[in-house]
Design brief:
By secondary structure, this protein is mainly β. It has one domain: Porin, CATH 2.40.160.40. The protein has 2 helices and 14 strands, in the order ααββββββββββββββ. The protein has a 12-stranded antiparallel β-barrel with strand order 1-4-5-6-7-8-9-10-11-12-13-14. A two-stranded antiparallel sheet has the order 2-3. It holds the Pfam family Gcw_chp. InterPro entries: CHP02001. Keywords: Signal.
């Protein structure tokens, strides 16, 4: 599956117009909307982003993955292209397309799929996104995610909250729980900059039953990220 990359991109267009930037991050568990993509193991992730003053932006992002069992897929490599625009100081929008690719085994590219997204920004600290994949994870069903994110400063820290609803177009093709096409996810994260590194701790939980998939159980994810401005 995938990181919800717009997850991490949620506020990037606002801060990085007309620039080339990169970041590298270590996480204790790579989770996509609360569901582990590394069988609860750690991940090394990196991104390269370009954004133009017109609002156009593009980038790529990669992470190791582990789907468990006998699946030898070990790398997710994503690409995205979008357009961000401020309408006024309190409102903006973001539209784009992301392509998710998988590597490591001869069959890994069967998982490849594309996703369209539309986002609204309110007061530079609240976002509402809709993500739509016509053939989710390379399967014959669509998939939609609706995600709300809000952040606020707390002294030297930043506190952020997210909530999402994920729903499969056909639970017989892709189910998130026993006989369920959908599940919900919430998280609360606290982060702080320390000598150029972003240190973050995130508490997250889903409504997925542990007996169906324990990769969606409640957890705390720790991460350290370093960003670099390559061109301005």
């Amino acid at each position: 599956m995938k990181k919800h990359l717009l997850f991490a991109l949620a506020f990037a267009p606002v801060a990085s117009l007309a620039a080339v930037s990169a970041d590298i991050e270590v996480v204790s568990d790579y989770r996509f909307n609360g569901v582990s993509q590394t069988d609860k193991g750690p991940a090394l992730q990196g991104a390269l982003n370009y954004s133009h003053t017109s609002g156009l932006y593009a980038g790529t992002w990669a992470s190791n993955v582990d789907f468990g069992g006998n699946d030898d897929t070990n790398l997710e490599w994503d690409y995205y292209l979008g357009y961000y625009r401020d309408i006024n100081p309190a409102f903006g929008f973001d539209v784009g397309y992301a392509q998710y690719t998988y590597h490591g085994a001869s069959y890994s590219d069967d998982y490849n799929y594309g996703e369209y997204y539309v986002g609204l920004y309110f007061n530079a600290n609240t976002t509402l996104y809709w993500y739509h994949a016509p053939e989710y994870f390379g399967l014959d069903t669509d998939h939609n995610i609706f995600k709300l994110t809000h952040s606020m400063p707390l002294g030297d820290y930043t506190l952020a909250f997210s909530a999402a609803h994920s729903v499969s177009g056909d639970k017989d093709v892709w189910a998130w729980d026993e006989n369920e096409a959908a599940y919900q996810y919430v998280e609360a994260a606290v982060s702080r900059m320390f000598h150029g590194f972003e240190i973050k701790g995130t508490v997250m939980t889903t409504t997925i039953d542990d007996d169906f998939n324990d990769n969606g159980d409640s957890t705390i994810v720790l991460s350290v990220k370093r960003s670099f401005e390559l061109m301005k």
